Structure formats: structure tokens, C-alpha cells
Amino acid sequence: VQLQASGGGLVQAGGSLRLSCAASGLTFSTYNMGWFRQAPGEDREFVAAIDDSGRNTYYSNYLKGRFTISRDNAKNTVDLQMNNLKPEDTAVYYCTAARNLRTVKLRRYVDYWGQGTLVTVSS
Q1: Is 63 helix (H, G, I), strand (E, B) or coil?
Q2: What is the pLDDT of residues 66-117, one digit of tens each?
């Protein structure tokens, strides 16, 4: 299984970035997909998830509507649109795949991790 994340980079506060994750080696439409992030010196934390059908999405409370997750089951991709970025959003962002929707926010129940893509937000 490979989860190849891309789209990270350097952006000024208030700007936007779109992360994309291309999945292979798994039956994509049967997995709930998500994004976690890890800031320097911090634990890895849940950001957003979308169920296998794409009909339901879940977000961390602190995002307050700034991020949007979406998926395309025909292309085996999941995206994270990030708007109004803040310096505290600086982190490595990881694409994830999980079979169990009930535990999709919990990192120990993630089945597969991508390699991560760095997002840096300057003030």
C-alpha cells in the first residue's frame, strides 16, 4: 500500500494550500481516508477524515471551517483544501487510510500512513 501525499510548501498567513494524496495497493473505496498532522515537538493529531463513500466528513474542532476534505473514488485520491492558514498550522501532514470509521480519529487505529508533506505558514 502506498499513500503519496503532495502539495505542501511555504505560504504566508491567510493564504491557502491544497494537499493531495494518491493511494495505490488497496481497495480505495472501502477505506475511510484522513489527514493527521505533526508540528515540531508535538504529538501527531487528527485533522480531518472522510468516509469510504465520501458522503460524511469529520474535522477537528479547532479548524473552525477553514479546511475541507474531499475524495475521488474513481481516481483513488483524497484532498485537503486549507484556507486562511495560520502559523500554528505549520506541520508535516500525513494522509491516512482506516477501515474502521468509529475510530478514524485515533492514530493508533490507522491502517496505513503516507510519508507526509511539510506545510510551513509564515507570519
Answers
A1: helix
A2: 999 999 999 999 999 999 999 999 999 999 999 999 999 999 999 999 999 9
Residues 6+ apart with CB under 8 A from 89: 37, 82, 119, 121
User: Which residues, other chains included, contact 62 with Cβ-Cβ below 8 Å and sequence gap of 6+?
Assistant: none
Q: Are 60 and 73 in contact (CB under 8 A)?
A: no
CB 3 within 8 A of CB 116: no
Q: What is the pLDDT of residues 27-41, one digit of tens each?
A: 999 999 999 999 999
Helix, strand or coil, per DSSP, at residue 6: strand
Q: How far apart are CA 68 and CA 41, in angstroms?
A: 26
